[in-house]
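ok, trying the design again with the full structure, not the truncated one.
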């Protein structure tokens, strides 16, 4: 096949791909813009009888235009990204943010025009509010292409000319929409779909022909993404506004985003710690806060345990002992491939079968009572707990201060450290046990009937079976993934690091603690970050073991109150906030670990 035939075939394929892209964009734009225009028309139509607005979907022009235009403006500012670099720059110039300022001025002017102008709900208002984001996007296209600026003018002056020309044409068309050809006035979605497709093709041509400045390429790529996402942004904005003021009273009630019902008394009881909501006196907010604490403590304990177990299993998989390595591999393959929901169910079932029946009244020296209902442990004095924690923290801080100029890893030093920590832990245990400790107060009103015993409320620390099942399930499941992260991170280290540690005469424990794990942390932490966030999100499966976590409490509230959408939004915000908190902490730790370059 000669060169001309190959070139001809490539041209045909390029034309077919271009045609398919145009068809897909046309369908996508039409599907997004048509319902958006209908929604704007419905929400801008005012029908007042006797001073009462008869259109439930009606919005004041200021509110309607502000939400639509400023929503897109935020996305546009993120795409252009002028403000943050300008703030960080030592030589700030107004020209560096002139496009953002021009877009902001246009947005304010369009909002003011929508309020003061007399636009028809059928054509004028939809054309104005749908066209304004298109105008803002066109400013990016023109700014990147530099087709309108005059060469003799500065960049800021050329941007002003571009803005004035484009905005004047758009406003002139909006005020004279009735006099425009039917293809524009009657087919607004078709007109703007064509404009968006032309802009997308033009930007794509610029991107494909750009081979020089990477910054220009990035700006044009961001503009391309913004143009493609523009119909979706408008659709979501108008759809949300329409749902909040839906003409259907049932739909409008579902989308009522007021949380006043959370101020009412709660109608069910939960088991929470350290703050126990008072049923039926406390509000739903207080019960939700107790559920958040339940999820947080389960997540925190699971993260600690799965990290310890995962490191042990991951290191064991690299052991030269075939039996230990094989057992670790079996553990990873079994628990990593098992659905967490099934694992939680099996753990809960096994705990119910293993722990003694409630009627057996099993206990250890009257200090610990246990049954298939849970554990009742002695409750130490709060002050003594604080003292013990202070001792541990002080010893840790002293060790960090002592090793600030280097770590003494000699056998004598390790023995000395182990002895000091052992003595400190024994001292803490003695402080906890010799103080005013509250033992479980066993109560049995009728000794003749088995299973009628109970522990006086407040006399013991209760660990429920649901909490144990959730912790065990999350730990076993996540530790299998953490083990693979540890193994992969260790194997990714250069072989010479281990050989150098061996040549220095370090013991296997010293090699692992001082050479291997500190370097492996650099690649482990980003992956552990994801797994720790998964622990937080996977804790929502606690409903399987009847543990009173966030999802369980909100799910019961949904059944009692019926406010599904507000409660789901609340659920989304809580889990998102928890994930961001975990991610932020891990990113700070990652920055500290990677501070030293190797």
């Amino acid at each position: 096949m000669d060169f001309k035939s190959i070139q001809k075939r490539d041209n045909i394929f390029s034309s077919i791909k271009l045609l398919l892209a145009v068809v897909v964009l046309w369908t996508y734009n039409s599907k997004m813009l048509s319902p958006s225009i209908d929604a704007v028309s419905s929400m801008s139509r005012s029908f007042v009888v006797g001073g009462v607005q008869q259109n439930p979907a009606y919005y004041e022009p200021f509110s309607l235009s502000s939400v639509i235009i400023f929503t897109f403006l935020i996305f546009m500012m993120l795409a252009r990204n002028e403000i943050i670099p300008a703030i960080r720059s030592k030589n700030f110039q107004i020209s560096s943010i002139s496009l953002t300022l021009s877009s902001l001025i246009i947005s304010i002017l369009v909002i003011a025009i929508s309020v003061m102008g007399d636009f028809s709900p059928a054509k004028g208002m939809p054309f104005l509010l749908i066209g304004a984001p298109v105008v803002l996007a066109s400013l990016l296209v023109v700014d990147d292409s530099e087709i309108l600026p005059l060469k003799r003018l500065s960049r800021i002056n050329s941007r002003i000319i571009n803005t004035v020309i484009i905005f004047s044409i758009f406003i002139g068309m909006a005020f004279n929409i009735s006099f425009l050809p039917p293809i524009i006035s009657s087919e607004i979605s078709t007109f703007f779909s064509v404009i968006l497709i032309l802009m997308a093709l033009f930007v794509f041509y610029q991107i494909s022909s750009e081979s020089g400045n990477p910054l220009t390429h990035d700006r044009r790529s961001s503009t391309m993404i913004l143009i493609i996402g523009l119909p979706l942004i408008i659709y979501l904005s108008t759809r949300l506004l329409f749902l909040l003021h839906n003409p259907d009273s049932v739909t409008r009630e579902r989308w009522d985003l007021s949380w006043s019902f959370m101020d009412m008394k709660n109608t069910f009881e939960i088991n929470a710690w350290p703050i126990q909501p008072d049923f039926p006196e406390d509000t739903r907010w207080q019960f939700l806060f107790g559920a958040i604490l339940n999820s947080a403590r389960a997540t925190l304990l699971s993260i600690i345990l799965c990290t310890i177990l995962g490191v042990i299993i991951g290191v064991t998989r690299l052991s030269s002992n075939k039996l230990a390595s094989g057992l670790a591999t079996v553990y990873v393959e079994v628990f990593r491939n098992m659905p967490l929901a099934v694992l939680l169910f099996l753990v809960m079932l096994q705990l119910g079968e293993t722990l003694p029946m409630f009627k057996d009244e099993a206990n250890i020296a009257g200090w610990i009572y246990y049954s298939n209902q849970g554990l009742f442990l002695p409750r130490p004095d709060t002050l003594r707990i604080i003292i013990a924690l202070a001792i541990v923290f002080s010893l840790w801080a002293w060790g960090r201060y002592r090793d600030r100029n280097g770590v003494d890893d000699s056998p004598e030093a390790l023995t000395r450290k182990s002895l000091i920590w052992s003595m400190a832990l024994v001292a803490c245990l003695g402080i906890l046990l010799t103080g005013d400790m509250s033992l479980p107060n066993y109560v049995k009103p009728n000794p003749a009937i088995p299973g009628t015993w109970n522990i006086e409320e407040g006399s013991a620390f209760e660990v429920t079976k649901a909490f144990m099942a959730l912790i065990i399930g999350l730990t076993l499941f996540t530790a299998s993934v953490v083990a693979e992260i540890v193994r992969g991170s260790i194997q990714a280290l250069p072989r010479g690091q281990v050989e150098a540690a061996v040549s220095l005469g370090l013991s296997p424990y010293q090699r692992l603690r001082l050479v291997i794990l500190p370097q492996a942390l650099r690649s482990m932490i980003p992956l552990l970050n994801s797994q720790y966030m998964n622990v937080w999100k996977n804790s929502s499966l606690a409903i399987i073991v009847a543990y009173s976590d966030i999802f369980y409490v909100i799910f019961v509230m949904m059944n009692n109150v019926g406010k599904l959408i507000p409660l789901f939004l609340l659920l989304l915000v809580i889990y998102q906030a928890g994930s961001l908190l975990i991610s932020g902490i891990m990113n700070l730790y990652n920055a500290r670990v990677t501070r030293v370059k190797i």
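Keeping the full-length input from now on. DSSP finds 20 helices and eight strands in the chain.
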